[in-house]
Amino acid sequence: MRWIWIDRFVEFADGSHAKAIKNITLAEDHLHDHFPGFPVMPPSLMLEGMAQTGGILLGKVNDFNKVVILAKVPRMTYHSWAIPGDTLTYTAKLIDVRDEGGMVEATAHVGDRLVAEGEIVFAHVNENVAGGVRIDQKNFVFSMRLLGVMDVGKAGDGAKEDPTSGNP
């Protein structure tokens, strides 16, 4: 199972906020077990989608030169569920950036319906202290083509749209 829970970014403002979407389909294995006869997106995976949106937003602040990990979730409230056919829109707003990490306010919506909201705290990890295991987040982001999900507004021919052109 791949551990990428966003399909693409639809908005990305460096150092400010980001919006990503996740289309939920019955092709996803976890929905067949959660729950049989009533498939819903597990809240833990929605949290991961919000964390990936916020973590990439924080990572971009330092050009992915610092390892960003989810440290804690001080507040998260689930108001509703998401089912196959829904598009989850994750929004992360960067509210604190420090040398030690950062924090985002995050929401998940299906259309106008609020599904979840909360705060997520991230830590910057010194990879030399992390058991001697080298974590090359920049390579991870690039090799997994995660930055590709940041290509907003691609035209039909695959060319990246110039956001300053004013063309819709």
Task: Report on the architecture of this protein.
This protein has 168 residues and is an alpha+beta fold. The protein has 3 helices and 6 strands, in the order ββααββββα. A 6-stranded antiparallel beta sheet has the order 1-2-4-5-6-3, with helices on one face.
Short account of what is shown:
The protein is of the alpha+beta class and 168 residues long. The protein has helices spanning 30-33, 43-61, 137-143, and strands at 8-13, 17-23, 67-78, 87-98, 101-110, 113-125.
Low-confidence runs of at least 5 consecutive residues:
none
Q: What's the alpha carbon Rg, rounded to whole Å?
A: 16 Å
Approximately what portion of the residues adopt beta-strand conformation? 35-45%
N to C succession of SSEs: EEHHEEEEH
Number of helices: 3
Average pLDDT works out at: 84
Count all strands and give the number.
Answer: 6
**In which order are the strands of the major sheet placed?**
1-2-4-5-6-3
Largest sheet: 6 strands, antiparallel
Name the quaternary structure: single chain
Which class best fits the helix and strand makeup? Answer: alpha+beta
Helix content: 10-25%
- For the record, give the distance between the C-alpha atoms at the N and C termini, rounded to a whole number: 36 Å
Identify the overall geometry. globular
